[in-house]
């Protein structure tokens, strides 16, 4: 056998240390001459790498730079993420990751994760066995149909699971060698991609209906057979598939939908903080939701349950919501609503005077307005001023991603309400300047919970993800809102505090898993210890 061109260790991002290999290691491993002679510490490597990153001119260049590092040296990659989380998050994650999905086939260099293409549907167990990881704790899977607010990106959607799993490690502390990103490549209806000779996915219109459902079933069966211990996170599926898939599998495997349940858990956490900051109870609020997709209905459902927990009966709680989609308010007269949307349908003729957002705000005087519509700028000055005329501290959450799909810019919201608005966004925004103070904008993004849900599930060895576990995550998050002690503070803890927060949220999730009977009996103290022990840190092992 001829020797390989490179000793394997330099090619293995989990074991490679590059210039940090010691003289002794280089000699033993036969690396002398293959590396420049300088021997660096991890800190020196990290300092050099962040400089290189900062010199890259554009966001996509920065993204490519980090992806290369991820494919070369995982300890160094995660060192950068952990030490510069606030700076790199908008690159590894929302909003730049959306652009990376759109350009996936232009920036493709090395394979990461699995692409399960429809024509190989008879061979899914074999494809799963081809993975590079031996054991897998978490799978994030998408079918690329609803990537952030950017629609169908086909096989390029794989960028999202890659980004989510990077945060599972950087924030949640999961071992990166035990996570697996997957795209179900079932075609695309994106004309631009189909016409692009450079597109790398299966060049075919999307499979739908029974064939699609059968493919998803084959995927789940393959996971059950090959990776029965793995949690499966569904990500960025279109509304018409997201909810049915979740309902079909949530009692069969360990699984949750991040857009429905993760987004909702965080929005509820932020709302709990906002209610307290405005001296109100959740049950006092009148809530307008713009958007009626899976994420929007998920948020409404979660808040509705919280209103019940706060003392309303289910019918009263339901009547606190006005949900609108592109065709206006959901009403009983409409015959185009799904079962989940129908819960929020308002009786005919109520409110009077029109069903647009402006009409509804004028007649209802909402106290909270949540956007998950991907309709850029839908929270206009007119709508917001009208809302703010009737409530002391309007709660306004433009949650659509990426930034270019946000319903409003926080600086505008601040101006239109003379600084009275309690704001959280889905994508990152620069801080607001007010009265000589710089106030960070809270990013109510599912990143506040999903990495911790993963850690909680792994540490507790949970077999399912229950509603109780997600509600425990919301409560743990709401309890740590900086606005609880300072009404002018942001609603959510800072991004720089995400790792510490994740430990608390993971513990709450793990405790709830035991309480719900889906994990082995263990004390809180024991679970705490298991979380600490499971945490993977970006350092070179001794
Ligand atoms: O990825 C994000 O930033 C949040 C999310 O799940 C989505 O927008 O689909
Ligand atoms: Mg998503």
UniProtKB/TrEMBL annotation:
Q: Which residues form the Malic enzyme N-terminal domain?
A: 70-250
Q: Which residues form the active site?
A: 93, 164
Domain Malic enzyme NAD-binding, which positions? 260-514
Pfam families per the record? malic, Malic_M
Positions of (S)-malate binding: 146, 401, 445
Protein species of origin: Patulibacter medicamentivorans
Annotated GO biological processes are: malate metabolic process
Protein name per Swiss-Prot or TrEMBL: Putative malate oxidoreductase [NAD]
Q: Which family does it belong to?
A: Belongs to the malic enzymes family.
Q: Extract the GO molecular function terms from the UniProt entry.
A: malic enzyme activity; metal ion binding; NAD binding; oxidoreductase activity, acting on the CH-OH group of donors, NAD or NADP as acceptor
Annotated positions binding a divalent metal cation: 235-236, 259
Annotated Gene Ontology cellular components are: cytosol
